[in-house]
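SEVERITY: medium
COMPONENT: batch folding queue
REPORTER: lab tech (J.R.)

DESCRIPTION
The queue accepted two submissions in a row. Attaching both inputs and their returned structure tokens so the on-call engineer can compare them side by side.

ATTACHMENT 1
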Amino acid sequence: MAIAFPQPEDSTHVVVTGFRTLAGSGDFSRHVHVDRAQLMYAARGLMHVATPAGRWILPPGRALWIAAQTEHSLEVNRPAELEILHFGVRTPRLPDWDGCAVVNVTPLVRYLIEACMGMDDAYALDTAEARRIGVLFDEVSTMSRAPVNLPSPRDTRAVRVAQIVMDDIASRSPLNQLARDAGASERTIERLFSAETGMSFGAWRARARMVVALERLAAGESVQATSFAVGYENPSSFIANFRTTFGATPGTYFNQ
């Protein structure tokens, strides 16, 4: 489904819409914003985003950029408070990003998002509002991306392996066994994951475990229970790998 927003007739104006929503369990079917980019900030809760290229999760305190023309669907499994800004594709200094990206939000960007929420839908380019948007774009463009996406392979054999892993994320089944179950050789699966996800199978599996761990921690599960649920033999190893991946321990990640 394609969603288009009316653009102002005066080309010296662009449109920004912002709203705050408190959502319970629900999902939004796959759609496309043909003329808008989106910036979503998760003030509370956790959201899932899916595109043909893969899956993202949006943890609290982070922001998700969705470029115009990006087909995506959204899913919220528990109450989540989101601040969402839409930017017309003609907005000056719009980040030149394709697809989706989750970024770690600094206090300055958090303040700018909050300030933009109260803006009028249309504004002239030579105004304080336009300069505020420009600073927001400059800051977002330089922020570090959070490794919370899980790229999707396309070949049916690699897709089968990925599904087996996700169905039993704690399993330590070796790749040769997984490949055999998918009707392929270990070498073929390694090649497919590298070519189609940009990651080795081992790196993809490690990322999958971290993504699932974030979801469980956001739901309130303990660090110990989460570590065992995603296949770690002890919480210490899990905490060390979590810190390496996300730059913070599980106990501090959601408070940043």
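ATTACHMENT 2
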Amino acid sequence: DSDIAVIKVDVDQSLLFPVNLGNSDESFVGQRAITIGNPFGQTWSLTAGVVSAVGRTLQSGNSPFSIPEMIQTDASINPGNSGGPLLDSEGKVLGVNTMILSQSRSSSGVGFAVPVNIVKMVVPKLIETGKYVYPWLGVTLNNISLDVIQAMQLDIKQRGALVIDVIENSPADNAGIRSSRDFLDVASQNIPSGGDIVVGIEDAAVKTTDDLISYLVKYTQPQDIITLRILRENTVIQVDVTLEPRPEM
């Protein structure tokens, strides 16, 4: 689900010149960004731009799960660039180019790369065991919008990840986490009402769904016991959850 693969090549090591890996946690908006790839079969093409945003969370292909901490860039990424590096001005890898948002299937200046720090986590396990096992909580989340605040009569400054669905027999279900009970019609939209709001995990605050997903991927493993801080009926409580391996879906 990280959209990363490892290819084994049978070649003399003297012919290989590995790139240096950077630290994607230090990426920032406006940073120089360079891509190398084979767009439309044009080998060894280089394009340049900037980091447009960091910390994006995007769905991984047809998977129901998401890739956190994605780096957005306006450097031209087209079919054939996927798998190529996104580099900084020193030639260090910031990420691996993976997808674009475009109605024409060609570059529209909105491209994304899997951050290199996730690559560092995933690749050794792929080489060692052939797979990377992610932790699983078993919930569907929404950010707290103004409509949700009004529907649930929350403080206007309330932030967090609203639990709108809990998968049966999942870690969240076993821990007693509650999902939204009702949906209210607001401006012809079904707005979830009720349900737990995750406002923290361990010592970290959760202001958005991205915060929770990123923490789980970066800092936890299956079988870890984590403590969630949850707003339930205007009271913040702590709930311990034992994470499980992410199921194949």
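NOTES FROM REPORTER
The mean pLDDT is 91.
No errors were logged for either attachment.
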